[in-house]
Amino acid sequence: MATLTLNDLDVRLLTSVQEQIPLVARPFAAIARELDVTEQEVLERLTALHSGARAPVRQIGAIFDSKALGYQSTLVAAKIPEDQLPRAMAAINAHPGVSHNYRRDHAFNLWFTLAVPPDSKLGLAATASILHCRAGATATRLMPTLKLYKIGVKLDLGAGRTESVRAAVAGGELFAAPLTEGDKRLIRVLQRDLPIVENPFDGWAEEAGVSVEELLESARQFFAAGTMRRFSAVLRHRELGFDANAMGVWVVPPERQDAFGATAAGFSKVSHCYLRPSYADWPYTIFTMIHAQDRAGAAKMLSAIASATGISEYAALYSTEEYKKVRVKYFTGDVEAWEAGVGDCE
Asked: What's the predicted TM-score (pTM) here?
């Protein structure tokens, strides 16, 4: 795939918006002041960078923490016979709680994330069992997060900006207050794709039945509580030249897991670092996600992590096809509708 050619303003703009969209009435004017350009220039360039199926900007909006919203979520690994992959992809993608679905070069060749709401009638395990059956999988393993060491994709586009991510302290958690129906109404609005106009929050506030400042203050409170991880743009890494999506998985003794997680999370090119359960056929417990320009660059980063931690038993699983990558839509009733229509495995 040919790499998109970006000018200097594009690079600075993409670097800024992937970190944070200011929670103010005219966020693009605030970004323009930061970049020393006009608001109109920001609106025009960002519109161009967000237009089309292969545009580098996938979406702009709130990124919420599933657990803080009361959702259950897990990473799922499945073994799918090659001739069943089209069926499996379609069956898994049809579930509205599946946000990511990748084919990876491993015996466990299909990896997807699954989330269900607080009032799910089936729950995670039963839902995964149904998907296992519908996909024609020969094995399925649930790999929920046991501990979070780091989360936050920040692609280094060469703009000289310092990485800023929300990372969990080993052993610590972010807790949020119970959500009201009013909170859920605001979340349904904030999770949408932000219009690229001078006053993008006006329509959202009117729909939610609040003032713009009330909407923004609620968003700020969601962020402060950890309910919202950030309000920003999500970029398409492949369109920006980051072709190697490497999931580094590590065999780490229990007594060294926290130290390993802290060290691995310190690498700027590691976007996600999690502790997950192991199985008899899956000995790996810590996962590190790396987005590199090519496999050689990803391999070099994994080697550097091994050298820094003294852990040498690991594997690199590269994504070879992206079947689905969207954000989970919270409190929309779509998962409940899927569950209402589910029957015996077909």
From this structure: 0.88
